[in-house]
Amino acid sequence: MTTSHTSDAKDTDAAAGNGANPADDQAVRAELSRLRDSIDNIDAAVVHMLAERFKCTQQVGHLKANHHLPPADPAREARQIARLRELAENAKLDPAFAEKLLNFIIAEVIRHHETIAKSA
């Protein structure tokens, strides 16, 4: 998840003296910095949560390999996608985006499970 700072050019123009009140400009920059700090903290939390998720899915991969279960579980994946879409809707997040994200994660998990199964 990357952040796009398309307004930075406008920020620079305002700071260059294009009629903006310096006090207002300073307040805007402070608010922008505060919001970006929050975004950075959220991104860090997302990365740590994904790391925890992958630790669990690695354990699932080993369990599946040890019991000769297939790396993918399409029925579980479908339930997870439906569940995540509902969570996204309730959180006012685009469900299609949430589904794309989960599909990306699932593909990576399956790849890990296949690698684990080959080495078992």
Count of β-strands? 0
Helix content: over 70%
Structural class based on helices, strands and sheet pairing: mainly alpha
The radius of gyration over CA amounts to: 22 Å
> Span between N and C termini?
34 Å
Number of contiguous helices: 4
Instruction: Spell out the helices and strands N to C.
Output: HHHH
Which blocks of ≥5 consecutive residues have pLDDT under 50? 1-16
Average pLDDT, all residues:
89
| Beta content | under 5%
Shape: elongated
Task: Give the biggest sheet.
Answer: none
Structure report:
The chain is mainly α and 120 residues long. 79% of the residues lie in helices and 0% in strands. It is built from 4 helices and no strands. Helix 2 packs parallel to helix 4 and helix 3 packs antiparallel against helix 4. The radius of gyration is 22 Å and the shape is elongated. The protein starts with 7 loop residues before the first helix and ends with a helix. The N terminus is likely disordered.
Which descriptors would you attach to this protein?
4 helices; disordered N terminus
Write a short abstract of this structure:
This protein has 120 residues and is an all-alpha fold. The chain has helices at residues 8-15, 22-66, 74-90, 95-119. The chain has 4 helices and no strands.
How is the secondary structure organized here?
Layout: H1 8-15, H2 22-66, H3 74-90, H4 95-119
Helix pairs in contact: 2-4, 3-4
